[in-house]
Design goal:
Elements (H helix, E strand, L loop, with lengths): L24 H7 L5 H9 L4 H6 L2 H35 L9 H17 L4 H68 L7 E6 L5 H5 L4 H10 L2 E5 L4 E6 L1 H15 L2 E5 L3 H8 L4 H9 L4 E5 L4 E6 L1 H12 L3 E8 L1 H9 L4 H10 L2 E6 L5 E8 H17 L2 E9 H27 L11 E4 L11 E9 L3 H16 L2 E5 L5 H5 L4 H9 L4 E5 L3 E5 L3 H16 L2 E6 L2 H8 L4 H9 L3 E4 L5 E6 L1 H17 L1 E6 L5 H5 L6 H9 L2 E5 L4 E6 L1 H16 L4 E7 L5 H5 L4 H9 L4 E5 L4 E7 H17 L1 E7 L3 H8 L3 H9 L2 E4 L3 E7 H16 L2 E6 L2 H13 L2 H10 L2 E5 L2 E6 L1 H19 L3 E5 L5 H4 L2 H11 L2 E5 L4 E5 L3 H21 E5 L6 H7 L4 H10 L2 E5 L4 E5 L3 H21 E5 L2 H8 L4 H10 ...
Antiparallel strand pairs: 1-3, 2-3, 4-6, 5-6, 7-9, 8-9, 10-12, 11-12, 13-15, 14-15, 16-18, 17-18, 19-21, 20-21, 22-24, 23-24, 25-27, 26-27, 28-30, 29-30, 31-33, 32-33, 34-36, 35-36, 37-39, 38-39, 40-42, 41-42, 43-44, 45-46, 46-47
Helix pairs in contact: 1-6, 2-6, 4-6, 5-6, 8-9, 14-15, 16-17, 25-26, 29-37, 31-32, 34-35, 37-38, 40-41, 43-44, 46-47
């Protein structure tokens, strides 16, 4: 009895093979079953009864049925081909159809028949009509034949379509049967049931696919045998497919992970390790390979690297094995051939023996300077032992040296007669050492003085070098030391005064030569220590020379008188001529000591005392003292002629003044107490004190003439009005200095600053070229500059004339110069003491200035009373903002600022009001258009704070009379409606409301100005009324972008029909990646048109369903990409259309031909969203870190005595921008003007979810509205945007705009 066939765990039943007559209904039903492989097998095998399952082999039966299906498919294919040939033949034999239609021919035949029977005609004419009628009947028969032929073609096409549909069904059934059969075959191969087979895919880096496969697929085959699975590798998708039972797949995947998770690692051992590994027959390397067989180890000798490949754990273990090799190297220089021979030996036998003994590598290399180096490489203990042995051997045979210090006089004696004395000394020492009998050969002992020692009198001691072997050096040094000590007892030292040494030497050394002749063979030497040394072997000779020296000293006594350095010139110059002659008559010579502190008097004791008295009396009456002064104060000292401060102190104290311009010093000569009093008076006059003060400030050059007045009349008037005040103006620097009583000086300063601020001045720009003249004449730049700065500008052929308040004139001139030359020059004015503090701070630590210069790209200089910034205007503005942050830490509340809108420049910069505040508070107040603020400065923080409070109150009142109405960028179209055609609307508004209306287009702002707050509010109400009505007559609504072409229609027919039906005007705005429609017209028509558009969109979306994904508003520009590049790429790759709904914050994928394509498109979008969300999280973390850094800087500044940021100065947090778009969601309205919301409603029985309109559009105007953002053109002409952080760094922004403008 035969054994039953194996059970596959399948439900078997009868399988309906498609019959040529019955069709393939059963198989068609099977093909619509579950899509999984196991379900396919179960469905096919369900066709078999239990008896059939036991009586035949399933795989064989399935193969037979596959053959039946294949035969049926081939028969149907042949039938399709035959019918296609028949159809082609029918098309070729299609009869020709007459040109006229059947109805036309019938009508013509009736007309001819009517003519023939209704009237009489000649026979020939009747025959002609009959021929025409017969021709028409023939054409009608041709029409009938053509119609019958066409019906035959239609029937044949229907038969072909039916046959092709049957062929399509059979192809699907054959494919499914083949799939089932392969599944069953695989189950038999893997010894499991088809129901147990599962398929798993794992990702694998492309570069590891070959490694996973192994040589000729060895790795894959090994895993297949071990785990009973089937493995295939998809090299295109970089995936590995595993089929088998669940447990077998899991086991196989674990095995594959050893390969798919493999990593490549390169280690670069140092040259010592590499040399050691490749030497000694690579034994260490082979040991590591044997202990880590699962790791592929490749050694690249040409680049000294080792490459490891394998599982990360195994690779790390191999890497640790390499790194754990305690290979080290030591080098030692070998000096001379003697040491080299000791190490190498004859023919290298010593080197080889040592290397083998300690298992190391030893190498001796010769350098470029005839020096050799010994290098030992190996394991650390072995290297230590080998080096110790070498060192011991060389140490025992080393020649060393030592030295003893010898008096310089003895050196001269030893080196005399060509060194005969030192040679004898050297021989005697060598004989003593050789006489010990310890060595058979006398050691070589060498004595010599260091060659770099200079000749005699250079030093009191010289170094005598002793060279000998290490074993004898101590003995030799002891003998030399004893001999030198004996010779030094023959030196006599005589101490004398330093002033007497030149006397002992004599003119040209004559006296010294006489002394040497007195003692034949004696050596005499002077030293820097004010001594004279005498060397002689005869004691009597030494004493004789000593007595001669004392006799010379007795004849040349010296006296001293203390003198100040400033008085030396007086004594030795013309004023001291009489004193010098008196001393000479007394027989004394006078001179000044080398340190310029004493007058040296040489002569007898009695005459020295008389001369000292004469000199002391002269010095008491001619005391000299001095002071330095600023070069700018030099004219002040002479100011007033006979009444100048110098003349005054000279008369009052009887002193003599000497003004030295080249050194900027003043010397005063006279009695000491009077000189001191005179200097004090001059210093008080220059610098203040004792109730007097000095203030300085800079005057604009164009206002200088008005300050001085004709012939100095204004200066004289001020000095008269403010008693005691002295005014001086330095013409070069335009600096005004006022000196005198404190109260009057301050009043005088306030008066002058008020006059400067309120006086209209004139300045000009000369040397205007014809080209620039024509350029300015043909543009509105001059008009715009005049309007912006409130200065009057007149253009002539050669120059530009500017007239107005000094601050306005300076700003206008800077703007014009920037237009002409490309360089903008701006200032931050400071007080004198503030300038010094800023200058000192920048000199102590220039990193702040350097960083601001680098990030802003501007030139920054510190001048008197101002910080000057020059460069491109955008860079200058950026630098000014950063400088204000830094100055806030340096000056604290002495420098404050109040932010104002540009529309408030004129009312807030009223010169009379600002001058009044300045007089009241004593602070300086000025408008800075570059930073859109009013600057307040004072050396007293309380005064600047008081001025700031007054300005804040003024700003509140000004805002009431000057209202700013700002619109969103999307509402720019409202400005043209407010202005009206030819300005009619805005003129009517001004007449009706008594207000002034100014339009700032770049900021989408309307400024309403009036005399009172009520008038301004009435003007605003009028504007609101116009805007409200405009919004009702112009709305915007969204349409999915993929629906836009259908909505617009061919040639615009669709949108034109909507416009015509609803009596409105419709147009698409911002065609690039925008589905926005603008609807304008009457209010009721606009509302009707909007509802019609919404209904159309709902109907279109119902018939064009898609797959949606939520998206953060900030990420929409990233998905769109630069110029729409990213979204176009996704659409091209998937064949889908991506619709962006900014109101609902979704992206929907439509069309594409299949659901998989839409899913793929959504998947790509989701990947971009996930990556960008990670970047946003990083930027948020970086921003928090920057905030902490800023707080740290503030705390450190406070600890170091720095001040907090000035009140009124806005301290903006730093922004860190990585690749992407800056988050500006908090700056935009949640619902833009004009957008039509679609509420929850039902049309045509379909419901539409409420659309959430949250629009966050990043535009260029919005970006540049941030004062910290600037832009410039790069080399390719593209605009590049930068963010200037208050902490002093600048970041390049990579932005994508939602709409261009």
């Amino acid at each position: 009895m035969s054994s039953p066939p194996p059970s596959y765990g399948l439900s078997l039943g009868p399988l309906a093979v498609p019959d040529p007559i019955m069709g393939s209904a059963s198989l068609a039903g099977w093909s619509q079953h579950s899509a999984t492989d196991t379900d396919d097998v179960s469905q096919v095998t369900d066709a078999f009864s239990v008896e059939e399952k036991q009586q035949f082999d399933l795989a064989k039966k399935l193969g037979q049925r596959l053959d039946d299906l294949t035969l049926e498919r081939d028969r149907t294919q042949r039938q399709v081909q035959v019918e296609q040939q028949q159809l082609n033949q029918l098309n070729k034999s299609q009869p020709k159809r007459p040109r006229d239609t059947k109805s036309v021919l019938q009508q013509r035949a009736k007309q001819l028949e009517r003519d023939r029977v209704s009237r009489s005609m000649p026979l020939s004419q009747e025959k002609s009509l009959i021929r025409q009628i017969d021709g028409i009947k023939k054409s009608l028969r041709m029409h009938t034949q053509a119609d019958q032929h066409q019906q035959t073609i239609y029937r044949k096409k229907a038969e072909m379509a039916k046959a092709r549909e049957l062929l399509k069904t059979l192809n699907a059934q054959v494919a499914k049967m083949e799939k089932v059969l392969s599944k069953v075959d695989l189950a038999e191969k893997l010894n499991c049931t088809p129901a147990d087979i599962v398929m798993r895919e794992i990702d694998c880096p492309i570069k590891l696919l070959q490694y996973v496969s192994g040589a000729d697929g060895s790795n894959v085959r090994a895993i297949e045998r071990k785990c009973s699975v089937d493995i295939s590798i998809d090299k295109i998708r970089a995936k590995i497919r595993v089929q088998g039972s669940t447990s077998a797949c899991i086991e196989a995947i674990q095995e594959l992970k050893h390969y798919t998770c493999a990593v490549d690692m390169e280690i670069t051992p140092n040259s010592d390790v590499f040399t050691y590994l490749l030497s000694r027959q690579s034994a260490p390397l082979n040991a590591i390979k044997e202990s880590h067989p699962e790791v592929i180890i490749d050694v690249w000798a040409n680049i000294s690297r080792i490459k490891l490949r394998g599982h990360p754990t195994n690779v790390d273990a191999a890497k640790v094995a390499f790194e754990s090799l305690a290979v080290t190297s030591q080098t030692r220089p070998l000096s001379g051939s003697r040491e080299v021979h000791l190490v190498i030996g004859k023919t290298g036998e010593i080197l080889r023996e040592t290397s083998e003994k300690h298992m190391v590598i030893m190498d001796v290399t010769k350098g470029s300077s005839e020096k050799c180096t010994l290098r030992i490489i190996g394991l650390s203990p072995n290297v230590e032992e080998a080096m110790a042995e070498i060192n011991f051997k060389l140490h025992a045979n080393e020649q060393v040296q030592d030295h003893v210090m010898v008096d310089s006089l003895l050196r001269e004696e030893l080196l005399s007669n060509s060194g005969a004395a030192i040679k004898g000394f050297q021989n005697s020492v060598s004989q003593v050492i050789s006489g010990d009998g310890e060595v058979s050969v006398a050691p070589s002992v060498l004595l010599q003085f260091e060659k770099n020692e200079s000749p005699r009198n250079s030093a009191s001691k010289s170094k005598l070098v002793i060279k000998a072997s290490r074993t004898n050096i101590e003995r030799a040094k002891s003998l030399v030391t004893k001999k030198i000590a004996h010779l030094e007892t023959m030196i006599l030292v005589v101490n004398i005064d330093s002033e007497m040494i030149p006397i002992v030497i004599g003119k040209g050394g004559s006296t010294m030569r006489e002394l040497r002749q007195e003692g034949q063979g004696a050596l005499i030497e002077t030293t820097p220590e004010n001594t004279i040394k005498i060397y002689s072997t005869d004691e009597g000779t030494r004493n004789t020379i000593e007595c001669k020296i004392y006799e010379i000293i007795a004849r040349n006594q010296v006296g001293y008188v203390e003198i100040d350095k400033n008085t030396i010139g007086i004594l030795l110059g013309e004023p001291g001529k009489g004193v010098r002659e008196t001393c000479k008559e007394l027989g004394c010579d006078i001179n000044v000591s080398k340190d310029d502190t004493k007058v040296v008097i040489r002569g007898t004791v009695e005459k020295i005392e008389e001369s000292s008295e004469v000199i002391k009396e002269f010095l008491a009456k001619n005391h000299v003292d001095g002071m330095s002064f600023d070069p700018e104060d030099e004219p002040v000292l002479r100011m007033g002629g006979k009444d100048s401060i110098l003349s005054t102190v000279a008369k009052e104290y009887g002193v003599i003044n000497n003004l030295r311009r080249e050194r900027n010093t003043l010397q005063i000569r006279g009695e000491a107490d009077k000189v001191k009093a005179a200097i004090k008076d001059v210093q008080t006059f220059l610098n203040g004190g004792e109730g007097n003060i000095v203030v300085k400030f800079k005057v604009p050059g164009e206002a200088l003439g008005g300050v001085i007045g004709k012939g100095g009349s204004n200066i004289a008037k001020l000095e008269t009005e403010f008693d005691g005040a002295r005014i001086h103006i330095a013409r070069e620097g335009h600096v005004v200095s006022i000196r005198g009583p404190e109260e009057n000086v301050k009043k005088c300063r306030s008066k002058m600053l008020t006059d400067i601020a309120t006086t209209r001045v004139i300045d000009s720009i000369d040397g205007l070229s014809d080209e620039k003249f024509n350029e300015l004449s043909n543009s509105d730049f001059m008009r715009r500059t005049s309007r912006f700065t409130n200065a009057s500008i007149t253009l002539s052929e050669n120059s530009i004339r500017i007239r107005g308040i000094s601050g306005d004139v300076r700003d206008a001139k800077a703007s014009i110069n920037e237009h002409l030359t490309g360089t903008y020059r701006a200032f931050i004015d400071l007080e004198g003491s503030q300038t010094e503090r800023v200058k000192n701070a920048s000199e102590r630590d220039s990193s702040h200035f350097d960083r601001i210069k680098a990030t802003a790209g501007a030139v920054i200089e510190i001048e008197a009373f101002a910080v000057v910034i020059s460069g491109k205007k955008s860079n200058v503005k950026k630098a000014k903002h950063q400088l204000m942050e830094w100055l806030g830490f340096i000056l604290g509340n002495e420098l404050r600022s109040l932010k104002i809108h540009r529309a408030l420049y004129k009312p807030m910069s009223n010169p009379e009001q600002l001058a009044s505040m300045a007089n009241e508070t004593g602070a300086c107040i000025s408008l800075d258009r570059d930073m859109s603020c009013i600057l307040v400065r004072s050396e007293d923080p309380a005064r600047s704070g008081e001025a700031l409070q007054l300005l804040e109150g003024m700003l509140v009142e000004t805002k009431k009379r000057n209202l700013l109405v700002k619109f969103e960028t999307a509402d720019t179209w409202l400005l043209s409606i407010i202005v009206g055609k030819g300005g009619a609307t805005i003129k009517k508004l001004e007449q009706d409301s008594n207000c002034r209306f100014d339009i700032i287009k770049e900021e989408v702002t309307v400024v309403i100005s009036g005399e009172t707050e009520d008038i301004v509010q009435s003007g605003k109400a009028a504007v609101d009324e116009i805007v409200d009505q405009a919004r009702k007559e112009c709305i915007f609504t969204d349409i999915p972008e993929s629906a836009m072409s259908a909505f617009i229609g061919k040639g615009g027919s669709g949108i034109k029909k909507f416009s015509s039906d609803n009596q409105v005007k419709m147009e698409r705005i911002n065609k690039l990646h925008s589905g926005t429609i603008k609807i304008t017209g009457k209010e009721e028509n606009v509302a009707t048109a909007r509802d019609a558009v919404v209904a159309w969109v709902m109907e279109w979306e119902a018939s064009n369903e898609g797959i949606s994904v939520d998206i953060d508003e900030r990420i929409i520009p990233v998905v769109i990409g630069k110029g729409g590049e990213t979204i176009r790429r996704i659409q091209k790759e998937t064949g889908c259309k991506l619709d962006i709904n900014r109101q609902q914050s979704t992206i929907t994928a439509r069309e594409g031909g299949s659901d998989n394509a839409r899913k793929e498109a959504v998947s790509k979008v989701q990947t971009i969203i996930d990556e960008e969300m990670i970047q946003i999280a990083k930027r948020t973390a970086e921003k928090e870190q920057a905030e902490k850094a800023r707080a740290s800087v503030r705390s450190k500044s406070t600890e170091n005595g720095g001040s907090e940021a000035p009140a009124g100065t806005t301290m903006k947090p730093p922004v860190t921008v990585s690749a992407g778009v800056k988050d500006r969601s908090s700056e935009f309205a949640s619902k833009p003007v004009g957008w039509a919301p679609v509420n929850d409603q039902k049309k045509n029985g379909k419901s539409k979810k409420e659309t959430k309109h949250v629009v966050n559009k990043l535009t260029r105007n919005r970006l540049l509205s941030d004062e910290n953002i600037s832009c410039e053109k790069d080399e390719s002409g593209q605009l590049v945007y930068f963010y200037a952080s208050p902490l002093g760094f600048s970041v390049k922004l990579d932005v994508q705009f939602d709409e261009e403008n």
